[in-house]
Amino acid sequence: MKNNKSTGEILREKREEKGLLLRHVSAELDIDTAILSKIERSERKATKEQILKLAEILNLDKDNLIIQYLSEKILYEIKDEKLGSKALKVAEQKMKYISKNKSGN
């Protein structure tokens, strides 16, 4: 999934495409309309649970939306780090190593 749009942009576009109002979607999430608006404007991060519920409400692929959500979590943690890209590559290697050793046990 190559997508330079933010999670919020994806959510807003899909919500508007489906003709759903902020207040209706926020009511289904049991959050304030202002909070959902901030999530859509990338001024606030959604929780993983909210992302899963939004995928369901908006008929979005859950796996793709979670990947988008996680990639942004990682990005915002390391984006201002000089060695962020290198650290990301090392983390990927470590994930592969851990996964390999888990499956080998």
How many DSSP-defined strands? 0
Strand content: under 5%
Q: Compute the gyration radius: what is it?
A: 16 Å
Label the structural class.
mainly alpha
Treating each run of at least 4 consecutive H or I residues as one helix, how many helices? Answer: 6
Largest sheet: none
**Gross morphology:** elongated
The low-confidence runs, each spanning 5 or more residues with pLDDT under 50, are none
Notes on the structure:
- By secondary structure, the chain is an all-alpha fold.
- The chain contains 6 helices and no strands.
- Helix 2 (22-29) crosses helix 3 (33-40) and helix 4 packs antiparallel against helix 5.
- The chain is elongated, with a radius of gyration of 16 Å.
- The relative contact order is 0.12.
Set down the secondary structure blueprint:
Blueprint: H1 7-17, H2 22-29, H3 33-40, H4 48-58, H5 62-78, H6 84-104
Helix pairs in contact: 2-3, 4-5
Short key terms for the protein model shown above:
105 residues; mainly alpha; elongated
Summarize the structure.
This protein is mostly helical. The protein has helices at 7-17, 22-29, 33-40, 48-58, 62-78, 84-104.
